[in-house]
Amino acid sequence: MKRWIVMDNMVDIIGIREEYCTNCHQCIAVCPVKICSDGSGDVVKFDNNLCIGCGRCIEACVKSHGGIAEKSARFIIDDTPQFVQDLGEKDIYALVAPSAQSNFNLNKLISALKLLGVKGVYDVSLGAEISIAAYHEAIKSGQAKIPLIAQPCPAVVKYIELHNQSLIEHLAPVGSPLYCLAVYVQSLHPDAKLAFISPCIAKRREMRENQMLSYNVTFQSLHDLLQAREIDVDSLAEGSFDNPVTAGMATNFSTPGGLKESYLFHYPETPASSITKIEGPIVFEQYLGDLEKAIQQGKPNLPLIVDVLSCEKGCNMGIGCVNQQYSIDEIEYSVASRSESGVSDPQANQELDDFLTDVLSKHDFGYYLYKDRSLSHLKYPNEEELKKIYVDMHKLEEKDFRNCAACGYNSCYYMAVAVFNGLNKAQNCHLYKEKELRLEQEAIWMLHNELANVFDTMSDGVIVLDQEGRISQLNPAAKQIIGFSDEKLIGEHIVDLFCGTAPKTLHLLETGQSYDDTEIILNGLRGQVHVTASAKPNYNEQHQVNGATIILRPIAQVQELVNKFSGAQASFSFDSIIGQDKNLQRSIKLAMMASHNMSNVLLQAESGTGKEVFAQAIHNSSPRQNGPFVAINCAALPRELVGSELFGYVEGAFTGARRGGRPGKFELANKGTLLLDEIGDMPLEQQAILLRAIQEKAITRIGGDTVIDVDVRIIAATNQDLLELVEQGRFRADLYYRLNVVQINIPPLRERTGDIGLLFDYFIKTMSPKFNRKIKDIQPAVIKCLEAYDWPGNIRELQNVVERILLVCEGNQVTIEHLPREIVNAAIGHRDTWQFNPGFGSPSQPLTDRNSRKLAALEQEREMIIRALDANAGNVTKTAAALGISRNTLYRKMKNYTIKN
């Protein structure tokens, strides 16, 4: 909402073509008033009553549109249409501005105007001579208030009327050169219409106010009119003004200082220092305000006359000029040379003086139509209101207050004041637009970077195809998979890359049907590459397929992922092997040596001794530690499935084969280690295929014909004597010698009784948190019992015993009553005497004979069953599982011990 109040409306002199406005704010930037914008936002309109008519906004707009006036959003409004319409119908006399000398061949222009139909042509320079003489009389008579501000420039007059009201009384009480000449010409031709030919657009307002002239025609409009009438000015004979006398020094009136030079010429007794010459933007930006303050403060040395013009270089560089093709030197020379010739003839000078004396005595050239057009005071925002406007303008930090004037205002503060007063809006702040663009750009850039990072850092290869199926982009992973660079692959057809066949991809480009996880063989730099491919179509704006995106995953990578989530990873190291037995340490040392090379290893040991722990430790200490560790129990597989498990199969290889086929353990173990557990139980017919795969390092899936290279280290494990099986013909000798490169024998637990205590303690500590137990003490007799036991299940059995103990132990001490009966029974008959608490009788009772030990064992078993039943809330199934016996056995023991549930 506008808060401006103007005393009356001023005539329009600047028009706007809204369709050409780009809201660049250049018009506001060059505008002396700044506050003429109406804040419309999308189009920078303006309040005509606030416009002083300097025309700077038109110049800026034309420049911003490449110098093409027809595309400018702002244009001059003058009276040319009415002037053309009245030519030939009314008596029109033309009054030509002094600046015509720098825009046309002046004498030929006079002929052109008369050719158009004007009755006579007068030189406004003569009006300037009248104004100067009238200035002198006004100063001499005291009618003028000093300093006298010259008023030939209507833009300056309007600015003073709007902004410097105290200077209004200092405006010359004499009409402008145009007004003075119009008064004189009107006396000669009372019924005629007068037209002003000039570059000034603001003169239209002055003419409307004094009603002395009917038409304001700019040089640009006149130039266009002459061209339209096909009048070639340069080809015409020279004409002459209809002035009664020739103007002298005042022909220079259109230039800055022209008034000063003319005044000093006619009145040489006037000190040159008493006339101030000022022009251009500084008039509005500083000078008028400073002059107003100086007058109010009564400062000394105030000028007698202020020669002031709005345009730099005066009227010779006005918006309506057509001399842009001339240099400044040419323009100034044309004006100066005419003024010099005007004062060189003494007789002409005398005639001019006589003329001025005569007209001043006969006519009143006084001018008192100045108006107070003062604006009401701006409303200024308070701190909170100002802060809100700044936030809306994206001014959040000190650096945001640039005061760049890109918005047209001299500072961010004045822009905010304009916004507060409804003269503009925050979105027109160029920082706002810049930040909006920057935020949008940052969002796009971040999205681009995110997508680019995803594209570049994906472990999967990405290939982008165009509509023809040719490669347009690919990421680093794809180049690494295939082995070729961008230059080699860009433009390559997908059929050529996919070994001459790509039916699913071609079908996708035709129909848009995607596909997933299809095995593909690629033509890579180092031979064929086995991958899985998934593809999705790309669409254009019309939702037509215009390409595809293919995701490639090397089979090895897929297998690694499968191994990771299927548990095909080695978790044990040599530190995981607990024991100090010399034979065990010898086996560990040999395994460590074997881990540093790629030789096949044969682990010979009973079940439960930790063959897989050794195998994993060898793998984790080898160069293949980052590869997969895949184990397969050959004894657990049906004979007919051994081949498919080891080597995989293709789709349709046999009834029940999974769609798409399936890789075997050799493929899954590629670049890693394959543990063939219980190798002695492998069927003889599969041993030959296994031998070939180990020798050739390649396999062929069942039902397929593609040879797949595999790089696998073999560790075989068995609890049988393979050499004896070879002698029996149940195991191939060549396979045996292929596997038995490094043979490692792992001693059973019964042969290293010294390690039982270490293992038992280790299992107690590592397994206790699982059962929420905190064992602080182990009865020495427990270890004695454990060492007396034969451990047919080896370490696996010991681990199970510890789990059972932690299940039934309710306190923080482990005693023999927590041991399984078979372990205690094994200890009966031991020659040593043990001190332990059997759970009945006195706290410490020696077991010195076989019967007492047996009794203690039976009582211990009875107590253990009762405790287990209590722990499982009487559930027989869970109790039997906890004790490691069957339900029938538990029922029989409960009957024997008279235990009621």
Structure description:
This protein is an alpha/beta fold. It has five domains: 14-74 and 377-426, no CATH class; 78-362, no CATH class; 458-554, 2-Layer Sandwich (Beta-Lactamase); 567-747, P-loop containing nucleotide triphosphate hydrolases (Rossmann fold, 3-Layer(aba) Sandwich); 750-896, Helicase, Ruva Protein, domain 3 (Orthogonal Bundle), CATH 1.10.8.60. The protein has 35 helices and 23 strands. Helix 5 (124-141) packs across helix 7 (177-188) and helix 33 packs across helix 34 (876-883). Residues 1-7 and 829-849 have low confidence and may be disordered. Residues 12-41, 42-71 form the 4Fe-4S ferredoxin-type domain. Keywords: 4Fe-4S, ATP-binding, DNA-binding, Iron, Iron-sulfur, Metal-binding, Nucleotide-binding, Transcription, Transcription regulation.
How many beta-strand elements? Answer: 23
Helix content: 40-55%
Number of domains: 5
Tell me the β content: 5-15%
- Distance between the terminal alpha carbons, to the nearest Å? 93 Å
Protein name: Iron hydrogenase
Domain 4Fe-4S: 385-446
Pfam family, one: PAS
Domain PAS: 447-498
Question: What's a concise summary of this model?
Answer:
This is Iron hydrogenase. GO terms for molecular function: 4 iron, 4 sulfur cluster binding; ATP binding; metal ion binding; sequence-specific DNA binding. With 901 residues, this protein is an alpha/beta fold.
